[in-house]
Amino acid sequence: MVKSSYNESLIELLDTITIQLDRYAANFIFLFGVVGNVLNIFVLSQRTFRSNSCAWIFLASSFVNLISIVSGLITVMIGGWTTNPANTIGWICKLRAHIVFSTRTIAPWLIVLATIDRWLLSSINAIRRRKSTLKNAQRWTAVIIILSMLLYAQMFYCYEANLTDTPLQCYDKTAVCRYLTDLSFGGIAVVAPLMLMILFGLLTIINVRETQHRVQSLTRGNSACGTSRSSIATSGRSQGKSTHRTQHSLLRMLFVQVAVLSILTVPLSLDRFYSTFSSDNGSAVNIAINSFIYNAAILLYFISNGMPFYIYTMCGGSVFHKALYDFLFMMKRKLMLTLLNSSVCCN
């Protein structure tokens, strides 16, 4: 009797916490993510970045993250106050699931593409460097989007509304569907991208070091030949410092990107793997605990969709900072001109 009462209290507590998270945490993440991605879109759309393949990939990623946040969190926020339409209306459930899972897969693979682009661009091999083009970035972005959408096409069959004894009412309706969704998401949308980010990030750092060694060797060789010795020495030192700063920035960006994505996306992947291979479908308490963990992991994942702008601001260096400053200054000037024109018209 005491145990039954304890279980009921625990279930009620977990349900209450979940509702509060949907009401308040989801609203904060929505605002945080939408503002960050909109600013990213405006900054990366400026002339400074238009012809840069890596910046274009980051721009596309910002659009994808914005779509993921808007499509995924609006129904969650509604569910915090009233009935979540995705839980009760079949076509909304299916469409939301497909968009959210597709964008969750597209976003990390675009970061992988950007990491590969940096690796190509930093290579001492001229053939590899020539592959880092805006056209190639756009082509592979289209490939990633199409494949990701096809990967989750089964959502239109598998996901169903008004389910019971599942973490969400809008969820996979059969065990086969759950295995397919959980394994494809955990392996393809989380684990594989993180491993490739680390791999190509490290290869990029190796390329930077090789370039630095070549510059230093060339500088020493020119000095030995007595060719403009002082000017070459000065140029070598400045190039060495610039290369060192670039290498340090790459290390920092790699660490921050991989660390943030790991912290925020791996919990949902682990939860999906656990639910796939766990044989404990169990009691109402286990269902409530699994549902709470799943909802919390989803919110963490949405935070990762809103983080890129803040990562670029911290680690993007003077170029991104200047572009952000120029955009804010331009908006301020336009606002001042609008107010001034309004004042003149009124007078």
UniProtKB/TrEMBL annotation:
Asked if the record carries the keyword Lipid metabolism, the reply is no
Question: Could you tell me which SUPFAM superfamilies the record lists for this protein?
Answer: Family A G protein-coupled receptor-like
**Subcellular localization(s) per the UniProt record:** Membrane
Fetch the PROSITE patterns from UniProt.
Answer: G_PROTEIN_RECEP_F1_2
A single Gene Ontology CC term: plasma membrane
Gene3D superfamilies cross-referenced by the UniProt entry? Rhodopsin 7-helix transmembrane proteins
Q: Where is the composition biased (Polar residues)?
A: 221-241
- Name used for this protein in its record: G-protein coupled receptors family 1 profile domain-containing protein
Q: Which organism is it from?
A: Rotaria magnacalcarata
